[in-house]
Amino acid sequence: MIPLFGLAPLGFLEVAPPDLIVLAAEAGFASVNLRTRPAVPGGAAFPIAPGSQLLRTCRRCIAATGVRVRAIEQVGLDRTTDVPSLRAMLEAGAELGASRLLCSGDEQDLPLLARRFAELCRLAREFGMAVDLEFMPFRALKTLEDAVRVVTASGAENGWVCLDVLHLFRSGGSIEAVGAVDPERLGPLQLCDAPRRPPSPNALAEEARERRLLPGRGQLALAELLKVYPAQRPIDAEIPMARAFPDLGAPDRARLIAAAMRDCLQRLEPGSAGAAGSL
Question: Which CATH number goes with the domain that contains 51?
Answer without folding.
Answer: 3.20.20.150
